[in-house]
Amino acid sequence: MFTQLTRDQQVLVQQGQIKKGMDKKAVYLAWGDPSRSSKGADNGTSFEKWYYYLYSPTYSGGFFGGYGHRGYYGTSITRTNDYTRELESKVEFRKGRVYNWENAR
Known about the structure:
With 105 residues, the chain is α+β, with helices and mostly antiparallel strands. Helix content is 15%, strand content 50%.
């Protein structure tokens, strides 16, 4: 796939960048699989959007009462198995090529 790209696109893909007019294969090589995708239409023109999310572990703090006769009270920070999802980037394709994109970074 990579060798089929133009030299300009190869350089951008190696830098993890995209530009208007790139096809889906080039975006896939630059940014990887999207977290999700959707399809729709705008004034009779079909489009596809790829969404890339950033997942961050959720940390919580609190007081721990301890065990036994004396126990222990103090702060603790624990990591749960929960993750916060934030939209990092979105790409819109029309006719199989990048029409526009947004980075929320």
